[in-house]
Amino acid sequence: MAFLEVCDLRKCFGETEVLKGVSFTMEKGEVISVIGSSGNGKTTLLRCLNFLETPDDGTITVGGKRVFPVATEEEKTGGNRLTFGLVFQNFNLFPQYNALRNVTLAMDIKDENELRAAGVKSKERKAILKQRKADNVQTATALLERVGLKDKLLNYPCELSGGQQQRVAIARALALSPDILCFDEPTSALDPELTGEVLKVIKGLIDEDRTIIIVTHEMGFARNVSDKIIFMADGVIEETGTPEEVFDAPKSEKTRAFFAKATEKE
Amino acid sequence: MDFITVTQSLFEGFAITCLIFLLTLVFALPLGLLISFCTMSKIKAIKGVFKVIVWVIRGVPLMLQLFIVYYLPGMLSPTGLNPFGKLDNFFYFNLGIDNGGALLATLIAFVINYAAYFSEIFRGGIESIPRGQYEAGKVLGMTKNQIFKKVVFMQVVKRIVPPMSNEIITLVKDTALARVIGVIEIIKVADMFASKAIIWPLFYTSVFYLVFVGLLTVLFGFIEKKLSYYKV
Question: What is the pLDDT of residues A10-49, one digit of tens each?
Fold first, then answer.
């Protein structure tokens, strides 16, 4: 059984069927790039995996455990949600917090929620959280150093460039150590000269054998780093395979047309 | 009538003005937030009811609302007694001013009226926060409450400071309406001098308002500056 199994995922927005039965599997440590032109369901697929959209039909299983559909709201917001991490196209950092706090906030809240769920008394909880908070600052500092922002810990998002903001967002997603990290067009909102620094950080994560799904328009990058390419068209997976198979010898007419257009632009 | 005596009397009235102002703020701000949640409710019935309430409260003159709150309960009660009348000795601030019942009625009317206005400011602020902020909170495992408290609230505060300061400055001067049901606030005190053909205290009251609003303006400027370290 594969680590991640997505089976026949469907999603409609009103009359528009955006996902028309998407199925794929993924092993631990694999990197999948999802490509295809805009409006073909790539982002919706990622949002379904992260529970930002509720699929109309289909199942999602991680490590043998069903994460969708689940019986209760609690299961959804509980541990399952943190199986996946998501880095947004527009970063979505919290503007009122500095880089460090952006990373530690969710860690602190996760600790608090866990202690609450375990029924630890308020007084005890405060004492434990104080210690954990200090640990979280250490962890977050290390993460921000790893994405090359050692000297920007106390800067606010409005003081950072797009590339720096996206790197903070990556550190923030890593902080909760998700099993599967998803990137939704992580460089699409960036100036061309800033995409390099973000792609370099993602490449670093890939070299650590993390399990990663990237929705991207960076064809060169997708080809270099992925174990598997998924080409989506019209709400279904039109073609899938190794980068060599998909890029060099596309079987589908739609895939060929997409690459022809993509290279035309370049 | 000498300047010092008039000033002293006006200060007594001004204390009531400040009291109405402060208590209205203390209760109307949280109530306004609550109403804003109701007008944004996903449950259509709640949303509809509160939209109508906000429409009525913003649509009827505050002065009329004062009359309604003060007189209607008495007219509806079987004894025909004004319940606020009994409270006339309840609030007695040792100011020689005995208008406690009317003061309570004023507070009720003001809190409801201002909460309605505040609720629309809160709603505007909350709805202006990009969806991505909620989504970021969600994927980071926060509950709805945690997202509101830790992520959204401070961004809303920053956005609503300018419209709030406008509304709060209006409140300072609206307190003068309370005299229509017999609250002896600063204008009413000056009016009592005027009825003895001494007009200048009436004009003099403007100094009190100007200084008060001046202080508020400085305070809001300070808050805006304090919040300028981030952009939303």
Answer: 999 998 999 999 999 999 999 999 999 888 899 999 999 9
DSSP string, B209-224: HHHHHHHHHHHHHHHH
Which residues 74-103 of A are in CB contact (within 8 Å) with B? 77, 81-82, 84-86, 88, 90, 92-96
Q: For residue A92, which residues of chain B lie inside 8 Å, CB to CB?
A: 130, 132-133, 135-136
Asked whether B105 and B70 are in contact (CB, 8 A), the reply is yes
Is it true that the peptide bond before A69 is cis, omega within 30 degrees of 0? yes
User: Which residue of B lies nearest to A182 if distances are taken between CA atoms?
Assistant: B139
CA distance A33 to A41: 14
Q: Which residues of A touch B130 (CB under 8 A)?
A: 92
pLDDT in tens, B112-156: 999 999 999 999 999 999 999 999 999 999 999 999 999 999 999
Phi, psi of A60 (to 5 degrees): -130, 125
Suggest the residue from B129, B131, B133, B139 to mutate for an interface test with chain A (most A CBs closer than 10 A).
B139
**Right CATH for B3-127+167-229 from 1.10.3720.10, 1.10.150.20, 3.40.50.12780, 2.60.120.340:** 1.10.3720.10
Closest Cα in chain B, distance from residue A24 (Å): 22
Query: Which residues 16-45 on chain B approach chain A with CB closer than 8 angstroms?
Result: none
Find the DSSP H helices in chain B. 3-39, 44-59, 62-76, 83-86, 100-127, 131-139, 144-146, 153-174, 186-194, 200-226
Q: What is the pTM of this model?
A: 0.87
Domains identified in chain A and CATH numbers: 4-265 (3.40.50.300)
For residue A142, what are its two tokens?
């290390």
Is residue B203 less than 8 Å (CB to CB) from chain A?
no
Give me the interface pTM, i.e. the ipTM: 0.91
